[in-house]
Amino acid sequence: MGNKKTEWEELGLSNDFLFGKVMGNPELCKETLETILGIAIQKIEYPERQKTIDEDKDARSVRLDLYVKDDEGAVYNVEMQSIDTKEFPKRSRYYGSMIDLQELDKGEPYWNLKKSYVIFICTFDLFGEGRHRYTFENRCRENHVIVLGDEAIKMFLNTEGTKEDIDSGLKAFLDYVGGRQSDSALVRKLDEEVNRAKKNREWRREYMTLLMRDQENIEKGRIEGLEQGIEQGIEQGIEQGENRYALLTQKLLQEKRYDAIRRIGADKVYRQELYREYHIL
After folding, report:
1. 74-90 pLDDT, tens digit each
2. Phi, psi for residue 34 in degrees, rounded to 5
3. What does the alpha-carbon distance between residue 160 and residue 158 come to, in Å, rounded to a whole number?
4. pTM of the model
5. What pairing do the DSSP bridges indicate for beta strands 75-81 and 62-63?
């Protein structure tokens, strides 16, 4: 119990669970979005807390860390990411598509779609250029001045940026998410909210329940992986196999890739692909 308490107490804003709880404060959430985007937002609303999108039984479901709208109907999806799974560009495409499906009812004209932002706050540099912010929108390849105008914006923030490419407010926020000392009015408010969240016993129990469930799934996956490995005649040492499978399962759980967890037990080729993807040797 002591170790679990320490783990809860040591969580920072980069933890997706804690981030979702802290962003439950409307004023703080609004100010954070304004800092990230450099725009003024009149007010925000929460259609659902940690929204789950599951349009079709055969389609991959999506559980969003933060899903809010502003007074003009623009949609903001913000995700905390601490592990580079090499799939974020296409994940942002999928998230944007699923959000559009939620926002447009059958028979509605397409122009009713509002502006959407899919924002990933990463504790690593996804594109390796040292930028703190990478913003994407659809433009004409032949003439970059021509913007498609679909109002679908994707943004990747990097807490480890090295360029002087953002204002001091956003820099302070990213430093704080990255676990470094920082000082700004927003950071002070965020830090107070983080400390307040850690004192919430209900949230602590919820987190510990999810953590234990994840650990149980890892153990179950490890056992199933060992059984599958025996059936397939894997020649690796048992100890090495246990460690690799458990580590892979843990990473997949952190990324909510539940379909992949179910598949790796029976598909050796796919499992090896994921070992390479996550650099698990």
Report:
1. 999 999 998 888 889 99
2. -60, -40
3. 5
4. 0.72
5. unpaired
